[in-house]
């Protein structure tokens, strides 16, 4: 059997047209949207099939080239399209890392599928454990409802039901305004531009891979909104926001719940992924939904000069 690693976008494009296992963040159309022309992919090929992929976003700024994560993209790096032993996966990752182009800096968050980061360690990378939160078995929506914290079920969501109606498909301008509010409250910049979010918003609708839900009061005022995206395995909470006045009314929680119901009853998916939540407040919120903590890895590798420049820029941004 012929085995090889090819850097070929067309292989991934062909794969996305024929294999439904490719996660949304690894699809060619998502990568085209968030990376432009600057993404590349390594395909591990066992004749006649591509059995593993490794997309990455290679940017250049002045003298430096570096691999980084594009906006609103949770995972990149290796993904296996077949069930392999851990030893075989390890061997493939080792080979793929050797085929990466030269760079001054590298940062990626790896898919949950990658539970062994030793090939990265052997190649000089560093790792940080991050956590996401997932609801599993949501096809049994009654059981999922019973798993939610009593205060959420009996108090906050009941209160929200009297204040708001949940509606689908919010216009983009209103969605942008409501989901910008959490960043305004924290006095930080959103990690994406309005144009970048608009492009993603339009694209997931075009590919029937996303939907927004929003809460509005009796006067039509938008109180909260969420955007979910999905692939064949799970539904992801990509973005959420609510206005200051309704934060303590349970409206945001209720809006998320209705998106979970949609994932369960309409999409027929079994997993709802909250996509992270390392802050104390977010962790508590996810736990109260009954979600389980799921680890994933951030891997990094930087030259000394590039690391110093990153540290300096980070200090400047904090001022």
Task: Jot down its keywords.
319 residues, alpha+beta, Aminopeptidase, 2 domains, 29% strand
What's the SSE blueprint?
Layout: E1 3-7, H1 9-18, H2 28-35, E2 39-46, E3 49-61, E4 64-68, E5 79-80, H3 86-98, E6 105-109, H4 118-122, E7 126-136, H5 141-146, H6 150-163, E8 165-168, H7 172-186, H8 194-206, E9 210-216, E10 222-230, E11 235-242, H9 251-265, E12 271-273, H10 280-288, E13 292-302, H11 304-318
Parallel strand pairs: 4-6, 11-12
Antiparallel strand pairs: 1-2, 2-3, 3-4, 3-5, 6-13, 7-12, 7-13, 8-9, 9-10, 10-11
- Quaternary state of this entry equals single chain
Q: Structural class of the secondary elements?
A: alpha+beta
| Approximate strand percentage | 25-35%
Instruction: Please report the first level of CATH classification, the CATH class of the largest domain.
Output: Alpha Beta
Which radius of gyration do the C-alpha atoms yield?
21 Å
Order of helices and strands: EHHEEEEHEHEHHEHHEEEHEHEH
Named CATH architecture of the largest domain: 3-Layer(aba) Sandwich
